[in-house]
């Protein structure tokens, strides 16, 4: 799918990987709507993305919030062609820690935002994508990209909830691609390794150095612009569908 003159919804677009992707898509000529909870950064980012860019305050886990924001995008921008789910949260607790079980509320929250939130947004965006005129020889109407993590494959100690949420994101790509094939909508997943974003800003120098030592090549955290480049390639390459791509410099997470 060509990016120029398309409408893209980017969740988590106020920060990190989502923000870099929103910037790349706007740079390639798309109009971007950011769905996020961070009003200050969301508005600031949208104001740099061109006169038609939108910021919508959305909790991705809320059906009402997403329905309202999708209606706003349709009213103001007239279509949704691209949906990129980058909203997500981390959180590490061991299954049993000092005799205490992993708090169920925290497990539920992580799965709700990372997995159910992504599905909530993409299913409502897909309804609107189905109304687009088909483009090109394969009659494309839309592209969905979800963000997993290499923790989906190599979850570390404490990552039961995060890995489960991201494993779900990996697994749902194929059935979603199958469900939406007749509508000309593709669904792909990116599983990033460690990326230089606010999500990892809290790591101590010692932990960072330990992680970097275990990376294969290049021995550094990924750049948000490198995630954005893969997202734009997925949009432009119509033969990518139903699959998850690791973007991780050949790293494999150790147990801790
Ligand atoms: N940074 C990494 O190393 C890394 C590695 C693997 C996977 N990921 C995944 O990539 C995605 C983006 O992460 P990032 O590093 O850019 O993080 P980030 O913290 O910089 O950005 C996440 C954004 O999501 C928003 N958000 C959180 N909960 C939300 C909700 N309920 N509704 C709407 N918006 C919400 C936040 O406000 C924030 O703007 C996440 O899904 C994360 O799990 C990140």
Layout of secondary structure:
Blueprint (H helix, E strand, L loop, with lengths): L6 E5 L4 H12 L3 E6 L2 H9 L6 E4 L5 H15 L4 E4 L10 E2 L2 E2 L2 H26 L12 E6 L3 H4 L5 H21 L4 E8 L12 H10 L9 H13 L7 E4 L9
Parallel strand pairs: 1-2, 1-4, 2-3, 4-7, 7-8, 8-9
Antiparallel strand pairs: 5-6
Helix pairs in contact: 1-8, 3-4, 4-6
Bound molecules: nicotinamide-adenine-dinucleotide (NAD).
The site of nicotinamide-adenine-dinucleotide has 30 residues, from helix 1 and helix 4.
Short description:
By secondary structure, this protein is an alpha/beta fold. It has helices spanning about 15-25, 40-45, 65-75, 105-130, 150-155, 160-180, 205-215, 225-235, and strands spanning about 5-10, 30-35, 55, 80-85, 95, 100, 140-145, 185-190, 245.
Domains, number = 1
**Are there runs of 5+ residues with pLDDT below 50, and where?**
none
User: Helicity level, as a percent range?
Assistant: 40-55%
How confident overall, as mean pLDDT?
97
N- to C-terminal distance: 40 Å
Key terms for this structure?
single chain, 256 residues, alpha/beta, Rossmann fold, seven-stranded parallel sheet, two-stranded antiparallel ribbon, 8 helices, 9 strands, 43% helix, 16% strand, globular, binds nicotinamide-adenine-dinucleotide
Structural features, described:
A 7-stranded parallel sheet has the order 3-2-1-4-7-8-9, sandwiched between helices. 43% of the residues lie in helices and 16% in strands. A hairpin with a 2-residue loop joins strand 5 (96-97) and strand 6. The mean pLDDT is 97. Helix 1 crosses helix 8, helix 3 runs parallel beside helix 4 and helix 4 (104-129) packs parallel to helix 6 (160-180). It has one domain (7-195, 224-237): NAD(P)-binding Rossmann-like Domain (Rossmann fold, 3-Layer(aba) Sandwich). The chain contains 8 helices and 9 strands. It has 256 residues and is an alpha/beta fold. Bound molecules: nicotinamide-adenine-dinucleotide.
């Amino acid at each position: 799918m060509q990016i120029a003159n398309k409408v893209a919804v980017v969740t988590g677009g106020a920060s990190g990987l989502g923000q870099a992707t929103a910037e790349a898509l706007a740079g390639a000529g798309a109009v971007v709507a950011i769905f996020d909870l961070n009003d200050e950064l969301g508005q600031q980012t949208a104001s740099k993305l061109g006169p038609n860019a939108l910021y919508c305050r959305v909790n991705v886990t809320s059906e009402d919030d997403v329905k309202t924001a999708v209606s706003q995008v349709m009213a103001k921008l007239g279509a949704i062609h691209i949906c990129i789910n980058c909203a997500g949260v981390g959180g590490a607790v061991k299954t049993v820690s000092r005799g205490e079980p992993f708090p169920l509320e925290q497990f539920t929250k992580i799965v709700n935002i990372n997995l159910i939130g992504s599905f909530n947004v993409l299913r409502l965006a897909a309804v609107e994508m189905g109304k687009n005129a088909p483009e090109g020889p394969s009659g494309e109407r839309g592209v969905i990209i979800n963000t997993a993590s290499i923790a989906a494959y190599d979850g570390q100690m404490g990552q039961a909830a995060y890995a489960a949420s991201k494993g779900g994101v990996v697994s749902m790509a194929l059935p979603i691609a199958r469900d939406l094939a007749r509508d000309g909508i593709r669904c792909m997943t990116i599983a990033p390794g460690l990326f230089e974003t606010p999500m990892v800003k809290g790591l101590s120098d010692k932990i960072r150095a330990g992680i970097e030592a275990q990376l294969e090549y290049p021995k550094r955290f990924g750049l948000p612009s490198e995630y954005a480049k893969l997202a734009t390639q997925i949009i432009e390459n119509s033969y990518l569908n139903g699959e998850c791509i690791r973007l991780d410099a050949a790293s494999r997470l150790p147990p801790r």
